[in-house]
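Morning!

As promised:
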Amino acid sequence: MLSMLMRRSALGLITVWLVSIIIFIGVEILPGDACTAFLEREAQGLLLENCRRDLGLDRPAWMRYGEWAANALSGNLGVSPDGQRQISELVGYRLRNTLLLASGAILCGIPLALFLGIVAALWRDRPFDIIVSTTAIAAMTIPEFVSATLLILIFSVWLGWVPGIVLTSSNAPLAEFFPEVLLPIAVLTLVMTAHILRTVRSSVIETLASDYAQMALLKGVPYWQMVFRHVLPNALLPTINVVALTIAWLLGGVVVIETVFNYPGLGRMMIDSISDRDLPVTQAIALIIASVYVGVNLLADLLTMVANPRLRTAHLRGK
Amino acid sequence: MTTPPKSNGPIIAVDGLSVGFRSRAGAWLPVLRDITLSVGAGESIGLVGESGSGKSTLALAMMGYLKTGLHVLGGRVDFSGIDMFAQDRQSLEKVRGGRLALIPQNSGQSLAPNLRVGAQIGEALRLHSALPEARHAARVLDLLTQVRLPDPASIARRYPHELSGGQQQRVAIAMALAGEPEALLLDEPTTGLDVTTQAHILELLRDLARETGMAMVYVSHDLGAIARVCDRVAVMYAGEVVLEGTAAQILRDPSHPYARGLLASIPKLSDVCLPRALDGRPPPPGGAGDGCAFVARCAIATERCMVERPDLSRIADGAKTRCHLPQQVRSIPLSGERNAQQRQLPAELSLSLGDLAISYARAGLFERLTGRDTAKVATVDGIDIELRQGETLGLVGESGSGKSTILKSIAGLLPPLHGQIALRGQDDLPPRVEDRSAKHLRDVQLIFQNPDESLNPRQTIAQILAQPLKLYFGLSGQALIARTTALLAQVRLGAHYLERLPSQLSGGEKQRVAVARAFAAQPELVLCDEITSALDVSVQAAVLELLDDLRRDNGTSYIFVSHDLAVVKALSDRVAVLYQGRLCEIGPTVDVYGPTAHPYTEVLLGAVLEPDPDFVPSLSASDVVEQSPPARGCPFQRRCPKRLGAICDQTAPPPKTFAAGHTIWCHRDDLAAPQLS
């Protein structure tokens, strides 16, 4: 297990490194650079040359990547193009905001998805299941900006309960994001709940039909004891990976939702930095997103291994 | 087996029970029709029939349980006076697993994978035993000991997947015994187990029934297993009981045409003939019509049988039969007549395997980089076999003996570590299937165990058969259609099957299509990997007849792999016995099944059951499952009942030739198997 952990961590580091190269190449391929983006129409002649020399953009690409990588390894992600602030500080605030949004959605969404999925499976094809399943499919298929706009219309415009747009600046204290953050959290919860609950529902239905669930009933195990002891521990194993993917998606910045609500999170910063050709910021965010994906998936696999006796004891067999 | 004690009425009484499901059209289609059956205290009764006959549904109904979609249409089931379909959940929970316990069909899948087996037995104790909680752990160990599991303390701590099939079945039995049941329902408890394991489990069940005096309802399609454990037998067909009587009445000279056909279709070790096929298939639920359900397959049916459903009535010998013609029934023969052996074979070689060794272990990238040697003991080693044209070689052995592995290597799916595979004596086959020419591919065809998985469900039968014809012979248009139709006719299927999908065919019909696909290539050699194991016995007999016809007409050679020694005996010219991937014995069928045998062959033959209530198997070795062969010496050293001593552990046994072509690898000089009764 330890060797697996080490091998997977090494692979994860390689993945993150490859991502940084791909992002670098991607931004290089885009026409223009930080100076043309910064100077806009004045980007020509001496002004452009000076700007490029100041920012070191006149050096070959591999040298710039090497310098960035060396700095990043020592924890220095660079400074913003205006040279005023540390990128780690800028990105840090955005990361904090994204974490607030994501953790809100996770705390509401996962328990809700588990509950609804299990109940829908246990009362399969009854009215409750039909309502839940239909709503889930609707939530998955309607584009996020449409459901976001609908929620804004209902809760903000008509009912006036919560503000429909976030006006707080990115580095304000967390408390100031309430109640503005509630609507974005609601939209994210809706989408992620739909995805997870469908997996939970089908997995529980499959496990309920298994020979061992039937056997438990025929052994005289009371229904609810069968559900909690024989069915759920096995049925929820495959949902671990779906939950992990959803969490990674949330932490990676949800561009559409952030844009609709004007929320200052990582996703929007990523888009802005790309259009500004602000390579250090793009790279920093890409690193965060890649690490989150790698880390969360590794965690999910570990959890599956611990929870599944078949995998846990695999190395003991085959002697 | 045991005489039922004089008691005040049966413990399980099924009275006029009908069970069915609602079709899409809204009609009720019966799965069980008007079943009346009783089980006395301490009595053991067998329910036999082909798949779809309703035997498992009946056994589960005795617990008051029906699969989703099924409903009681009439009648009732009483367990010691309790109407099982009138109980609420709580009172059913009290009975189930307590006074009335089930041993399921597939224990591997019936034990919850997330709980240690000790905990699962403990759960049954907590639900059904009066013992104080503190004594449960000790009781679990008692139960595991009672089902003859070695080292019960270690077994109790394991998860189901860490046990072998036989051990899982024993755990399921221990779990059923936890509630000290008065009656035990067994749903095909030994299906899928090796012969030796099956024989051991059956002996255990016999002993337990005698020790505890519990009644047993034993569901099986295997008349040999039924003969060993049951006092009484009920034969089921299309949801009805068609014959009921003592084991001797049913198994020796049954008075129903279906039971006679079933008996005749079972290959027996004592037979020299191919079993007799029972043609046709049972009617679907609701399709039985007004007359006898068996009329379409019956050899002696009359006008009356078409229009009038016979009652289950008592006849002269005391059995109850559902037949209008109980006198004429005896004219239906109980054994086959076609002798498949003693054929004249040409001297030309078809296939030769030279010192073949195969291993599943492949050095990974990591091992190759570090140069670590991963060469363990090969899974299969030292296989030297020559097969003549038109010859059938049977490969037998328990699961893990390497039978299928050898077939995979011959087919090029698993390259051997070393050794030659040659066709016609000189044409070496490349080890990988990708490197083989179209001619090589054509020459070697493989038929798989499960036609459900080997036929593409989205292709029609015509498309499935056309593929090899286009690929190897470039046929198209009218010629292609003519050839596919001819192939179907060869496997006794009409041209109307061409446009059907595999899902519209029965298991036996699907396997016929798989056979036709193999023969479409006009192969030199056909590899048959347990091709009849998933089929009902009557269908199995038909497939065996078909294989016999095809080799007569085409001169094809077969390698026929099976764990069923009687099936192998019926079809094979020569037989090779494998243990842990090593040859133990090879020779003409009469000699391998004759008095001189390898100790392992003897163990296997001793465990085979015959459908005869007086037949006693001889169990001479444990049913331990070995994970890998020993590093040196005889492969069978650890289980051999006739082990000599250190020589068996140290030195690989030399081949000894007895009759012409009969070779045994064993150190002993006094090899003799018990005479078969």
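Chain B has 24 helices and 24 strands.

Hope this helps with the figure draft.
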